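Final report, closing paragraph on structural work. Over the funding period we assembled a curated collection of sequence-structure pairs, and we close with a single example.
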Amino acid sequence: RARDAVAANVAATASFCSDRSVMNRTHHHTINSTRRLTPEAYRYQDAMDCEKISGGKCAIAHGVARVGDAWSMMILRDAGLGLSRFDEFHKSLGIAPNILTRRLTMLVDQGLLKRRQYCDRPPRDEFVLTEAGRDYLPILHALSAWTQRHFADRQFSQLVDAQTAVPVEPVVVDRVTGRPTGEMVLRLVESGLSEG
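Its predicted structure, as stored:
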């Protein structure tokens, strides 16, 4: 079945974040430091953090605040690999249900995921990528390539073309010139201002 194949694919590529002990330590620290907060307080805290980071004019800071943290990036990774249901994300990531609920809600609020009902009785939703969520996937692909290039201390799983099984080598290029942005000398300017 297609869904079984998707689940097997995600299980096989879980080594994208194979050092789960790091993620678990982060998870336990989060629970211990914020265990008295209500769900509403969690969302308020997330909103305040987002506002603090993204209050300026830097699109990078705003984008980082939109996505959130490593758990949210892993959820987007799995959504890009075909997972969409709560139990699938939970099985793939080993994340605590309450933390997963918060991250899914945040990603829906930020417009990277959307809910889609797949069961009437009982009513249940799955979470699918929006256009903004799909546009974020190449960022994760580039992050994977960066990790494998600079931190090759273990054997990582690879991104391959699903049709040809040929490994892909993600690179970020300028749409106008086709040049890799990492090889260009760049600077930030305010939108609407001409270069001086």
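Residues 12-34 have pLDDT under 50 and may be disordered. The longest strand covers residues 113-119. We thank the funder for supporting this effort.
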